[in-house]
Write a structure and sequence with these properties.
The complex is a heterodimer of chains A (284) and B (285). Chain A has 284 residues and is an alpha/beta fold. Helix content of chain A is 42%, strand content 21%. In chain B, strand 1 and strand 2 form a beta hairpin. The chains are: A alpha/beta (284), B mainly alpha (285). Chains A and B meet through helix 1, helix 3, strand 7 and helix 6 of A and helix 1, strand 1 and helix 5 of B.
């Protein structure tokens, strides 16, 4: 038997639950981009840099919210196409069918071939790198080192970094199936930093003292080498909007392309859009 | 009809709705996986998905055989490590250990089930992988590393269900056997284990289901290469890691192929669960 008092109690708790639900729901709504906020989504290679861009932008213009999410280049392009995010981020060039988007090259990023700091190798030719990643060269002995198998570390299919590496280094050749696959720049760096016999590739801006970035055809990967047109493994970081950017998205992209934004990009270890912009145009 | 009865009815109906909403989520998930994954399987043919060795989704090659074999290897390895340990632990704790030991040890082992899989993966990367690389060779990220970590992860499942099924046996089995002059070990081997067999089998199959479905820890320590491993020291990719690794970047057919991976995984897990249910039903009847 439920008496009136208990019934009221149940009613009250139901009402309370409903209110709680509403409160949670509406607060989660208010977190979504409203009038004053935009969302950047896409490439996990761009994301750590974009986080800082957003931070600096929001400090400079208080009250304007820029929200950065990952997901990958393809997801970013999709998000810009469907409008799920105001601005998409991509670290690979657009495919022809994706060219309906308005694209802005905001920076260039180098790809560095990395090995363990104790590795004897300092320099490799692009061809040797290709042979190692395709699995034709399997032992360090074949290139003058100890008799140990080379542990090739690559990124997963669909990653922008892998796409850029495939295009610039491998050409039509496939990366060996035996290669270890890791799903971010950070984990590739981690595996190479711990394994004396590993080789991998990551974004130049993310190289640190735990790994050694080797010279490619005798060119040390660095910002200067890229600007001097010597280091060739570079790829664009794109911001994408569906149609010309408007409102806050426009302000943000202009900020990044402006002097202050480009200066920040340089300090982050990336290559400002204008510095490498012209060279790569005639290279491509 | 008075207010209380009305209220009772209301509660009945709302509980019914809540119960069905839980089931409908399951139905929605299955529907979603199959509608996303099946079309591409029909387009390219099941044979290509199941028996091709080439996984190059950006070129339109969707061979899942290396991942199917990979899941099989890693799961088998995990069973080889988890089943003997779990079974031996269950026998010790139910037959030989004093009750004091059991009340302390059993909850401790069950605590293993509460550790997030990313922590297992991290321990694997930091301790196990360098150990394998230094002392056994290969890159360390390997079938062996994944098997050991998964073996530990399924331990609580196997152990606690086996303990329950051994404890559920009537005490007369044990007493009768001892009274007939059998030693304790003979009693365990010839009376208790056969009697609790279906519960033990169910625990093994549930552990296997957990091993097949585990993703995070495996991605971190298995190396994820898309070739069939030739030794336990080679890197390997499982079905679950294939989905989780590539989901972020996949679009178009690549994305559909990952759902197709999900379809295959779904079928495997369903089959395991059905077998587990059937055996445990046999036990109770």
């Amino acid at each position: 038997m439920v008496d009136a008092k208990q019934f009221l109690g149940i009613k009250a708790s139901v009402v309370f639950a409903l209110l709680l639900f509403l409160a949670v729901f509406s607060s989660s709504c208010s977190l979504k981009p409203g009038h004053k906020g935009i969302t950047l989504a896409g490439s996990t290679s761009v994301q750590p840099f974009a986080d800082q861009w957003a931070e600096v932008f929001m400090t400079k213009f208080p009250g304007k919210a820029v929200n950065v999410q990952g997901g990958g280049s393809s997801a970013g392009i999709q998000a810009a196409l469907t409008g799920a995010a105001e601005v998409g981020m991509s670290s690979r060039e657009l495919k022809p069918e994706e060219k309906v988007l308005t694209e802005f090259i905001v920076a260039w990023d180098g790809l560095a071939i990395i090995v363990h700091p104790s590795n004897f190798i300092d320099n490799l030719s692009l061809l040797t790198v290709r042979d190692i990643f395709s699995g034709r060269v399997r032992s360090w002995k074949e290139i003058g080192g100890p008799e140990r198998a080379i542990h090739v570390v690559t990124r997963e299919e669909g990653s922008g970094t892998r796409g850029a590496f495939q295009e610039m280094v491998m050409g039509r050749e496939r990366i060996a199936k035996k290669a270890i696959v890791q799903d971010s720049n950070g984990t590739v760096r981690e595996v190479v930093a711990n394994d004396p016999y590993a080789i991998g590739y990551i974004s130049l801006g993310l190289v640190n003292e735990r790994v050694k970035a080797i010279k490619l055809d005798n060119v040390q990967p660095s910002l200067e080498a890229v600007v001097r047109h010597e280091y060739r493994l570079i790829r664009p970081f794109l911001l994408l909007t569906s149609g010309p950017p408007q409102g806050l998205a426009k302000e943000f992209i202009e900020f990044i392309l402006g002097e202050e934004g480009q200066d920040l990009i340089r300090r982050q270890g990336l290559i400002p859009a204008k510095l490498a912009g012209e060279i790569s145009q005639d290279e491509r | 009809m008075g207010a209380p009865e009305k209220n009772e009815r209301l509660i009945h109906v709302s509980l019914l709705v809540v119960a069905f909403s839980a089931i409908s989520v399951l139905a929605l998930i299955s529907l979603f996986i199959f509608t996303e994954g099946l079309p591409i399987m029909f387009r390219y043919g099941f044979k290509k998905f199941l028996f091709s060795l080439d996984w190059y989704p950006s070129e339109g090659h969707f061979g899942l055989l290396p991942m199917i074999v990979g899941s099989l290897f890693v799961t088998t390895g995990a069973m080889l490590i988890g089943v003997p340990l779990g079974l031996a632990g269950a026998i010790y704790l139910t037959q030989f250990a004093s009750k004091k030991v059991r009340v302390v040890v059993k909850p401790l082992i069950e605590l293993l089930a509460g550790i997030p899989s990313v922590v297992y993966g991290f321990i694997g990367v930091v301790i196990l992988v360098p150990f394998i690389r230094e002392y056994l060779g290969g890159p360390g990220l390997s079938v062996l590393a994944a098997s050991v970590i998964l073996g530990i992860m399924i331990l609580p499942t196997i152990l606690s269900i086996s303990i329950d099924s051994l404890l559920a046996l009537p005490p007369s089995y044990r007493e009768g056997s001892i009274a007939l002059g059998a030693t304790e070990w003979q009693t365990v081997r010839m009376v208790l284990i056969p009697a609790a067999r279906s519960g033990i089998v169910a625990s093994i199959i549930l552990g296997m289901g957990r091993a097949v479905g585990e993703t995070m820890a495996v991605i971190m320590i298995a190396g994820n290469a898309t070739s069939i491993p030739h030794s336990v020291l080679d890197p390997v990719r499982t079905l679950t890691s294939n989905i989780a690794l590539e989901m972020g970047y996949a679009s178009g057919e690549h994305r559909q192929a990952l759902f197709a991976t999900g379809v295959i995984l779904f079928v495997i897990i369903m089959a395991l669960n059905t077998v587990a249910n059937l055996t445990s039903r046999k036990m109770s009847s």
